[in-house]
Amino acid sequence: VKIGVNAVALLAAANVVPQFRLIFDTSKPDDWAKILVIALIFAMVNSYLKPILKVLAMPIGFMTMGLVAFVINAGMLLGTAWLIGQAHDTINIVFSVGGYPPTWGYDAIGVAVVASIVISVVATLLDLLLVPRKILGL
Q1: Which residue from 87, 114, 130, 136 has the highest number of Cβ atoms inside 10 Å of its Cβ?
Q2: Cα 27 to chain centroid, rounded
Q3: 48 by DSSP, 3-state: which?
Q4: Closest Cα to residue 41, out of 84, 96, 12?
């Protein structure tokens, strides 16, 4: 379920955030499977690296009142874009965040922050809709 939620959140961010590109052929079922692979990679990066980075950034998080979480989320998104860029010949789907990969700049960081906010909002809403017991406290 989490991979499906991530896939929908990534597609929503690709439709809402300018320069967040996730281009694939909607008529091919194989490309939809590739989107799920990208969502799986994103989920794995978030599951394994994000907790470690949050612990390491905890002192900065206290000083910035938690705003460093946006930077961590953007970093996870850029890391996913880098991993997908490394496998571009195999996956054959365009996935870039503000032109990264191949170019690195302020645009990539800004787009990653905005896209991570959109992804977080969409994923949270879908989690609440798909698992109603979180709302009811059961």
Answers
A1: 114
A2: 23
A3: helix
A4: 84
